[in-house]
Amino acid sequence: MDIFIQQVINGLVLGSIYALVALGYTMVYGIMGLINFAHGEVVMIGAMVALTVISMLSDSGLPGIVIALIGLGAALPVCMGTGFAIERIAYRPLRRAPKLAPLITAIGVSIVLQNLAMLIWGRNYHAFPPILPTSEHEIFGATITGLQIAIIVIAALMMAGLILLVQRTKLGRAMRATAENPPIAQLMGVDINRVISLTFVIGSALAAVAGLMVSANYSIAHYYMGFILGLKAFTAAVLGGIGNIAGAMLGGILLGLIESLGAGYIGDLTGGFLGSHYQDVFAFFVLICVLVFRPSGLVGEKVAERA
């Protein structure tokens, strides 16, 4: 039983990260109908920038939490600027182009960002300095660290804040109007270019936080880390219902639990033939099943079909 609870805890931590990244995918798709495959690389940039600053300050004598916040403070504007530049340079000129053009462009932007990161930070893995508290707490025989608790709580607060932003603010109303019908929203005085840019900026801010969480949780970061993470977050968005914010959150948590429980029990189920390093298989198996049996996702898409 303690193994099951431990895997559930690990799944909640992993799912919280997936949910934050998936929100970036689902927000952009909800407003533009575009899959921004470069979003995983924005997460990677956030992780690398934060880790660079944290490594520089690791011997400064400052408290670890303060150093982590400074690293996050450096990563946020870089990621937000990257997201804004991606939308302005790569996607806005193709807004009226056939759907295949921005999709190919998104893949190209992803490759460009990967190679730029490789030139800046190199090919090697970068270790996360041991600056954060390593206290452990026991829950029904399972262990959860203070960092894991912080990841779950911070992710939950950020997701709740995003829901309030979309549902209760003027910007949120403009975002929902743009998602419903951009031409009509523009006729009603909504600056859709500004709304779309802010959507990329907000999604990139969430990506910066997720990047720091990933590097702190696994204690490493590297230039290629955003590719698989981005694909899994996209799977989470599809699982919950891409275009639906609540669906992206649900899909992220479920995918994290499925992957963690699968990795924990796949050895027993296959008689030792497969090990926990096959955990990536579960994410893409889930993606195939969702696309075959329920393409709209578990919650379903709330974005109106555009003419």
TrEMBL record:
Recorded GO CC terms: plasma membrane
Keyword list (alphabetical) reads:
Amino-acid transport, Cell inner membrane, Cell membrane, Membrane, Transmembrane, Transmembrane helix, Transport
Locate the transmembrane regions by residue number.
12-35, 42-58, 64-86, 98-121, 141-166, 195-214, 220-239, 246-266, 281-300
GO terms of biological process kind: D-alanine transmembrane transport; L-alanine transport; L-isoleucine import across plasma membrane
> What InterPro entries does the database record attribute to this sequence?
ABC_transp_permease, BCAA_transport_permease
What GO MF terms are annotated? L-isoleucine transmembrane transporter activity; L-leucine transmembrane transporter activity; L-phenylalanine transmembrane transporter activity; L-valine transmembrane transporter activity
Which topology term describes how it sits in the membrane? Multi-pass membrane protein
> Localized where?
Cell membrane
| Family that this chain belongs to | Belongs to the binding-protein-dependent transport system permease family. LivHM subfamily.
- Annotated protein name in UniProt: Branched-chain amino acid ABC transporter permease
